[in-house]
Design brief:
- The protein is of the alpha/beta class and 372 residues long.
- Helices cover 35% and strands 12% of the residues.
- A nine-stranded mixed beta sheet has the order 7-6-5-4-3-2-1-8-9, with helices on one face.
- The longest helix has 18 residues.
- The radius of gyration is 20 Å and the shape is globular.
- The two termini are 31 Å apart.
- Bound molecules: iron/sulfur cluster (2 copies).
């Protein structure tokens, strides 16, 4: 593999995926579909070492996620350690397991920021897409977050089922006192890729939802900042995935596998180093996995000579692999890719009878994971 000569900068962001355990079963979950086959979780001492090593390397922000990070009893201890050594600490949670005692302990530990996921404005759809009864629990978690003085940061994944509810989702966020609402259209990795044809919205749904968002932005001004992230499949250029491979993002999976991006586990032939076997600094600077798509030397045509390669870095490697079978291909979201037509057709065929197979959603569960 050709390597570019310059030494990469330090990671800015450590994502600590503490566990794949989660009480929810979201049909769009970004965890790997075979998550149940991965090894034992790192223990507390190893996480402390990982957090210290990443900070020493230069990382400034840490996200605690999963699965559901509240499933780990040592979450408060890890937050306290990260805070003490200078990390800005974020908890990324479904809210299930967040009670008064827990949030008080997290506050005492120094937790800076909480991002709460909501699935819909209605109990029916929330409970359907998560295959749980968690609507009321999430509302309670939102109240606890507000009562403890945290900014209210909500995230809602959008798809064909809840896009028609965007106005009601915004109203719900405003009622809960949201300061920030991220409306993130489903990205098709992990379980969402399994359910892609079922979750894919129509172009009309997206246009309508964006218009609704814009109307609310005008009406509410600075009271709540609303972010609307358009799904890749509806774009003509890919996003600068991870701001470039091995550039700012360092993820660590529950079993200690180090991840250059959230979905890197899905890439064939990529041997992910494990924090149990290799120091973080060596993983970041020297491992084959973190160097595999760093810089631009790995690119093929049309990216290799494209003057946009410094902007989008060729897009997402996992999307390239899933849609073309070649992880070094241009992301087919790009209209310069010879595979772009596949993306166009997937969008066009969404919901057209006879064009896509009609089948029920596959929910994230241990049984379904072990069956993959
Ligand atoms: S997307 Fe849903 S199932 Fe997956 S980790 Fe988050 S809350 Fe759990
Ligand atoms: S050809 Fe490659 S580098 Fe150029 S815009 Fe498309 S994805 Fe980006």
């Amino acid at each position: 593999m050709l390597r570019e000569p310059t030494r990469p900068g330090a990671p800015l962001w450590l994502l600590a995926e503490l566990t794949y355990r989660c009480p929810l079963h979201c049909a769009f979950c970004y965890n790997p579909v075979d998550y149940a086959r991965h090894g034992a979780e790192l223990d507390t001492d190893t996480w402390i070492e990982v957090i210290s090593a990443a900070r020493k390397l230069g990382a400034a922000q840490i996200g605690f996620s999963g699965g559901e990070p509240l499933q780990r009893d040592d979450l408060e201890m890890l937050v306290e350690h990260a805070r003490a050594i200078g990390f800005y600490t974020n908890l990324i949670t479904s809210g299930i397991g967040l009670n008064a005692a827990r949030i008080e302990r997290l506050k005492l530990a120094g937790l800076d920021h909480i991002q709460l996921s909501l699935q819909d404005s209605t109990r029916e759809l929330n409970d359907f897409v998560t295959s749980t009864r968690t609507f009321a629990l999430k509302q309670e978690a939102a109240r606890l977050i507000k009562a403890h003085g945290y900014p209210m940061v909500l995230n809602c994944v959008l798809h064909r089922y809840n896009l028609p509810h965007v106005a009601q989702i915004i109203e719900m966020a405003l009622d809960l006192g949201a300061d920030y609402l991220e409306l993130a259209n489903t990205q098709y990795y992990g379980w969402a890729m399994l359910n892609r044809d079922q979750l894919m919205p129509t172009a009309e749904q997206l246009v309508e939802a964006e218009e609704t968002v814009n109307r609310y932005r005008e009406r509410i001004g600075g009271r709540c900042k609303i972010l609307f992230v358009v799904p890749d499949y509806f774009e003509r250029r890919p996003k600068a995935c991870m701001n470039g491979w091995g550039s700012v993002f360092l993820g660590v999976a529950p079993d200690g596998a180090a991840l250059p991006c959230h979905a890197a586990r899905s890439l064939p032939g990529l041997v992910l180093p494990n924090v149990r076997d290799m120091p973080i600094s060596q993983i970041w600077y020297e491992s084959d996995a973190f160097n595999a798509f760093r810089g631009h030397a790995w690119m093929r045509e049309p990216c290799r000579d494209c003057d946009e390669r410094h902007t989008d870095h060729g897009g997402c490697r996992c999307q390239a692999w899933m849609l073309t079978g070649d992880p070094a291909a241009a992301d087919p979201v790009c209209e310069k890719s010879p595979h772009h037509e596949q993306v166009v057709q997937t969008v066009q065929f969404a919901r057209q009878p006879g064009k896509v197979e009609e089948r029920p959603l596959i929910f994230r569960s241990r049984e379904n994971s072990l069956a993959r």
